[in-house]
């Protein structure tokens, strides 16, 4: 179970982590490319405007100024044009941003960029302070990246902080989801362990009696009571094994099983008629009110088995003389009830009676060869027919209610 929880946790954590990582990466990648595109556009626009302001080569600084090239302004970033003469001699600097960087500093940057011999260089915006476009013998356009660099770094830092916080939240969510997903498996696993323990315990007792009786019979072959003990305990084991097999079959119902439309009214009535004679002998009157022609997609054998369990349970918990009442009605849903008077269900135990091996009175159930499997089988039959089953005791009156839900 622990390995299953670990695997589920790892899968959930990795899926959410990959999703979160993708969002953080996509946002920063998109922002970076957007800023890079804006810088490249500023370089390209400046070069084009310079060409319109004068000839691409041999341009004089005065000519560009006269044509109004120095009046071009960029509001979103700092852009400079360094005018070059023959042999790439710097003739002047045009500041398109009105910032406070001196022409001398711009000229030093231009000299460095000229020495690199690249026509255009934007570089890594997380590191580089300047980008440029170089027209040899004409000009070099320089864009200040410092504000963009600072913005990208800040965004990346905030993204990483949010990413760490998101990972902590993902860790908590993964733990909670793991517990939620594996809870039914854990409950089933615990029930299986309990089932094996209970079945082993129930089988151990008759086996011990059989073995002891066999040893005693071997020593006293004339004593018939040892044979009686062996037969009695063998019958107990046979009934227990039959109930266990029936429970296993009812829990292993194939979801693809196709039920056929049959008369639920006739199936319930048939079960009542079967028990009528047995109840009469014990001084109990069976009364039933069954609505005609109620059709249900069902397995008639299973429905009769369900009725047999409920009627047998009502019979064994009724005090003679008494009445047992059966009702079958259809409104929106189909409602089946079996009611008896007598020994009721202890308060707070209404849900537990459908658990395997549950017995309110262990000594009495043992004397009657009852193992607490009947109602567990009944519950599985109901679930296989899209129905719910519940029980309620009030004023020495116990009612089992089965509701076949309308589809």
Report on this model:
By secondary structure, the chain is α+β, with helices and mostly antiparallel strands. It has nine helices and twelve strands. Helix 6 runs parallel beside helix 7 (300-316). The two termini are 36 Å apart. Residues 54-73 and 362-369 have low confidence and may be disordered.
Helix-strand blueprint:
Layout: H1 2-53, H2 61-66, E1 79-84, E2 90-95, H3 103-116, E3 120-121, E4 130-135, E5 139-144, H4 146-219, H5 224-251, E6 260-263, H6 264-281, E7 284-290, E8 295-298, H7 300-316, E9 322-330, E10 334-341, H8 362-367, H9 374-384, E11 387-394, E12 397-404
Parallel strand pairs: 7-9
Antiparallel strand pairs: 1-2, 1-5, 3-4, 4-5, 6-8, 9-10, 10-12, 11-12
Features:
407 residues, alpha+beta, five-stranded antiparallel β-sheet, five-stranded mixed β-sheet, 12 strands, 56% helix, 18% strand, elongated
Largest sheet: 5 strands, antiparallel
Helix content: 55-70%
Shape descriptor reads elongated
Distance N to C terminus: 36 Å
Radius of gyration: 44 Å
The H/E string reads HHEEHEEEHHEHEEHEEHHEE
Please summarize what this structure is:
With 407 residues, the protein is of the alpha+beta class.
